[in-house]
Amino acid sequence: MAIIKFEPFFKEISKFLDEEFVPMIPSVKFSEPAIDIYEEGNNIIVEAEVPGIDPKDVDIEIEDKTLRISGKIEKKEEVKEKNYYRKEIKSGSFERTVSLPSEVKEEAIEATMKDGILRIVLPKQKTSSPKKIEIKKK
Hints:
- By secondary structure, the protein is mostly beta strands.
- It has one helix and seven strands.
- The strands form two sheets. A four-stranded antiparallel sheet has the order 1-2-7-6, with no helix packed on it. A three-stranded antiparallel sheet has the order 3-4-5, with no helix packed on it.
């Protein structure tokens, strides 16, 4: 089953403004990082683009089949002697929340980061098979 994220119209406007007017705004909040969610064996894999962010500045939380990835990148000191033509390197915070397709074993979740990609391995929780309940006559 594919997961499709609902994004209201105002989020689309916000994305447009972030992309078009970033150079004009001195400190810009990160947009949501792009993610991939897929199955690999008995695991759900979530990969998120978080380039330039230190792993210690990223938080991962899970609650009721909902995964929340948040973090921040500190603004580097702007050098006053430079005459900028464009200033697009973002600083600030980001947050991404997604619903997972099944229950996971929270105690066995692992996360790694390599080349700006955060990879979260979420082992799927075994679910019980549907049980048919017979109705008894009184």
